[in-house]
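SAMPLE LOG
Freezer: B-3
Tube label: C17
Construct: single chain, 199 aa
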Amino acid sequence: MSEAADTRQQFLSVATRLFAERGFYGTSIAAIADELPYTKQALLHHFGSKEKLYGEVLKGISDQLMTELEAARDATSGEGSSALEDTLIRFYRLLEGQTHKTQLLMRELLDNKHRATSANVWYLRPFLESLIALAKQASPSTFASDAQALITVYQLLGAMNYFLVSEPTLSQMFGEEMYRELRSGYEEKLRVLISQAIG
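STRUCTURE (predicted):
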């Protein structure tokens, strides 16, 4: 990796974490640069603006999710209910170790009210469209329209993401032992939820 590419990656890594912790509006270019041995001007040289940096962060997460989706399709021949289930379980396992990305995606839904009307690119749209297609392949009789499939996909992703970002609260509220039990049983419950949703 070249020095310039390495610098960009460092900025993206810190930006992902800070955007997740503080949201788009609560994170400044200066705060990101302060965590690295670079200046604010260096960050702007690489990305141009906070908006463009944020777009790159979302694109990186979307690309990672799409890679997992393709891998799940390849592993299951891309057909039937097993393709959707395997894909969603892969997402859960991926995000289980990277909860800051889950937190960022949830913050994006909450924080983008003002930016949504002027957004030119929706980085997560191809990912959601692919899940819609998988849901319709899994159960054509259940999902007659894209909207019906998206409702179910969104509910499943929501349940998964809500659980993942709840770790600090649940472990403090009910204790580490109970949280470990919750964590160990969640994937199986998620499989049941997916199976019931497909019909």
